[in-house]
Structure formats: structure tokens, C-alpha cells
Design brief:
The chain is α/β, with parallel strands linked by helices. It has 12 helices and 13 strands. It has a 7-stranded mixed β-sheet, with helices on both faces. It has a 4-stranded parallel β-sheet with strand order 7-8-6-9, with helices on both faces. Strand 4, helix 5 and strand 5 form a beta-alpha-beta unit. Helix 1 runs antiparallel to helix 3 and helix 1 packs parallel to helix 11.
């Protein structure tokens, strides 16, 4: 029986663990008796449309390179944010995709990504089936936002959550060395889902109460309630640490970061603009008058690989390998998912789910993860999230800095 070829693409926002998933796919394909060439699509689906494919077999014949890939942050193959049109409106584009796959003898397409990437998987898989293209298309989840439907959690979330919790703890230690009233507002990614901001709660321990307040996009944000909460915490702790999602909105659905009319212009007539944390910093300074600063973690939380979760990296590798096993059994048009089978003694299994049930849906924080006041999380959330940040990897370094694997373009 002649061997077949496979291609892997990465798409959407980078993470600390997406390359560990890539390593899992490559490792499993290299061990498969069905596979000859393993291609990487440079910059996701754009790499296929532009016929920009790299053969990965020789690069990862070395176990050292495969291990280093697992520890390398961001998207080794490059990423993109490209939404495929509906097949009825873009038949020529779909035909081009499958012509290029046919040109390279590719029968298996693995796509690692988030919500938009799963939309691509759904459309390509449906087109392949409808037009007898003979290409198996599999989706593999990744996102720090943890907002993909159908899976208990997403690769990338655990390491980002570990970074957020660690950063909030260090910010609090910095603030606590001054015995003066202060507020520090930390803005964390998550436009519609609050999982990553909620992970700040994992910083709490025997001698650290921070963050004192947590605000998530799943609940309407009220400025008056926020100021009341902050004043109460200042009276108790002096140094208050607040975690806010970038996507917090008021009762009318207006993002706080975009609400130019939240306060009138400042004393000098200047409009008070900025992100959510910056907006709230200005409000605290104006209304409470204490020392206040805002910290926007921004892209640091996506690809910080110097302190990743070993659980996250190991599971990311495992789900990549499992995707290959499913594809070799002729499963197509599905996304790999984690199912938690033991919550008390953390255990998961890996299954797959019809991509049509997942694509273009968004998972949000369930109600039982958020307290009744909407300014904190519950024990149910920390019990859910803590196993995902456990364990540490030994990072490969040179000259005092982490070593990363880079694709030669």
C-alpha cells in the first residue's frame, strides 16, 4: 500500500502550548506506517492557498528538535486570521485549496486553532465530503481564552492561567511593600469569556488575599458598585488588587474601555480614554483620590514560556497525538476534546466531537463559577482550574535565556 501525505496548520492567537500540540501531531505522524511526507502550512490556511508548505520530516527526525518544539512558545509554523467564505460564495477558493492538497498528495489536514479555525475545519471538511475530495480534516483546539465549546478546557489555557496567577501574585507583593492606600487594576485578556481573568484567583494562598476583586464579562459592570467595592476593600486591606477582563461591559452592553461618557472630561478638559484598566484607574483617582495604577498584561500572557504548566504542555502533546489516531481511523470533520472523568482526583480522557456542534459557538463562565455579587469567583472555579496549572517543565536555556526553535522561511 502506497503511503499518504499530511499537512498541519496553526491559526489564530499564539499560545505557550500550541507548539506542543504540533509536536504531538508530528510525532504521531512520523510513527504512522500510513504517512510519508509531513508538511507544515506556513501561516495557516494562507500557507495552503499560497502553496507555501514546508516538509517537516527531516527537521523533526531529531528527538532534540521535537522536545525543543514542545517548549517553544507562539506558532512555529506562523499563524493567520483568515475566515473562509461560505462555499457557495467562494467555490474557486475551495477548489484552489484542494488542488494544492492534491498536488502534494495530501490526504490528511490537521488544523490547530480557536473559534475561527474551527469554522475553517467545518467548511473544508464539509466541502471535502460534498465533492468527494478524499481529504480527512481534523480540528485540534487551542486558546488561552478557554472559550471553545465542547471541551472541558483548551490547550494553552493552563499555562496562560499559571502566568496570570503568578503575575498577579508578584504585582501584589510589589504593592504590599508600601503601607499606604493604593489600588492596582490588572487588565487580563478575555473579551467575552472570563476564564483567564478568573484564573487570577489562583494567586491566593495562606499569606496572600490578592486579587481582592475580580470582574468578568459574563456579568454587567456597574461603576457605582465597583467604587463601593473598592472603598470597602481599602478599608480592610489598604493595598487593593483588582483583576478585570478587557471585555467588561455595562448593562447596555457597552465596553467599559469604549465608554467615553463613563466620566466627564477631567479637570483639564481632556477626554479620559484607554483600555478597561486605564479607564478604571482614572475613575478611582477622580472619585476616591488614592494612589492608583493600571497594568495591562496584554500579549505577555499568551506566549510566556518561562514558567509553563507541565499539565498543559503534556495534554497539548497528547491531544495532538490523539488527533492523528482518530484521523488514521478515518474520522473527519471533528475536533478533539478533553472530557474530565474524575473531578476530585483529576483525570481526563480525549475524545472527538462533530465540528458542526462546536464551530461558531462560544463557551463562557458558568454561573456557579461566579459569586452572587459579580465581583469574584467561587471555589467551584478554582477547583476546576487549579489542576490545569500544575507541574513545571525544565526549560532549555543558553546564555541565561530560554532557547526557542525557529522555522527557516
Amino acid at each position: 500500500m502506497s503511503k499518504l501525505n499530511a499537512v498541519i496548520g496553526q491559526s489564530g492567537g499564539p499560545t505557550c502550548a500550541i507548539n506542543s500540540t504540533l509536536a504531538g501531531v508530528i510525532d504521531a505522524l512520523a510513527k504512522s506506517e500510513k504517512i510519508d511526507k509531513i508538511y507544515g502550512a506556513v501561516n495557516g490556511i494562507n500557507g495552503i492557498l499560497n502553496d507555501n508548505l514546508k516538509i517537516l520530516n527531516d527537521i523533526f527526525a531529531s528527538a532534540d528538535n521535537l522536545n525543543l518544539l514542545k517548549l517553544t512558545p507562539s506558532s512555529y509554523l506562523g499563524s493567520c486570521r483568515f475566515k473562509m467564505p461560505e462555499p457557495d460564495c467562494g467555490k474557486d477558493l475551495y477548489e484552489k485549496v484542494f488542488e494544492i492538497l492534491k498536488k502534494h498528495g495530501i490526504s490528511y489536514f490537521f488544523y490547530i486553532g480557536g473559534n475561527d479555525s474551527m469554522d475553517t475545519v467545518m467548511k473544508l471538511s464539509a466541502y471535502s465530503k460534498a465533492h468527494n475530495k478524499g481529504v480527512i480534516v481534523m480540528g485540534i483546539p487551542k486558546t488561552i481564552d478557554n472559550d471553545l465549546f465542547g471541551t472541558d478546557h483548551c490547550p494553552g489555557f493552563g499555562s496562560a492561567a499559571k502566568f496570570v496567577a503568578t503575575s498577579v501574585a508578584e504585582i501584589a507583593r510589589d504593592a504590599y511593600c508600601y503601607f499606604t492606600d493604593s489600588v492596582t487594576i490588572v487588565e487580563i485578556m478575555g473579551r467575552n469569556a472570563g476564564f483567564l481573568t478568573a484564573a487570577a484567583a489562583l494567586a491566593r494562598c495562606e499569606n496572600l488575599c490578592a486579587p481582592d476583586l475580580i470582574y468578568l464579562p459574563e456579568r454587567p459592570f456597574d461603576i457605582a458598585d465597583f467604587l463601593k467595592d473598592v472603598r470597602k476593600k481599602i478599608s480592610e486591606n489598604k493595598n487593593v488588587i483588582v483583576a478585570v477582563s478587557e471585555g467588561i461591559k455595562d448593562k447596555n452592553g457597552v465596553y467599559i474601555a469604549a465608554a467615553a461618557d463613563v466620566l466627564e472630561n477631567d479637570k483639564f478638559g481632556h477626554a479620559q480614554l484607554g483600555g478597561a484598566a486605564k479607564t478604571l484607574e482614572n475613575i478611582v483617582k477622580e472619585e476616591i483620590g488614592c494612589k492608583c495604577r493600571s497594568v495591562e498584561i496584554n500579549v505577555l500572557q499568551r506566549s510566556a514560556s518561562h514558567f509553563p504548566s507541565k499539565t498543559d504542555l503534556d495534554e497539548a502533546f497528547m491531544i495532538g497525538s490523539a488527533a492523528v489516531s482518530s484521523a488514521m481511523n478515518n474520522v473527519s470533520g471533528e475536533m478533539m476534546v478533553f472530557k474530565r472523568i474524575d473531578a476530585d482526583d483529576y483525570k481526563i480522557e480525549i475524545n472527538s466531537m462533530d465540528i458542526a456542534l462546536i464551530a461558531n459557538k462560544e463557551k463562557k463562565m458558568p454561573d456557579n463559577f461566579i459569586n452572587s455579587e459579580g465581583n469574584d469567583v467561587t471555589k467551584a472555579f478554582t477547583d476546576y482550574a487549579r489542576p490545569l496549572i500544575m507541574g513545571e517543565e525544565k526549560i532549555i536555556t543558553k546564555n541565561g535565556l530560554p532557547v526557542h526553535l525557529v522555522l527557516e522561511r
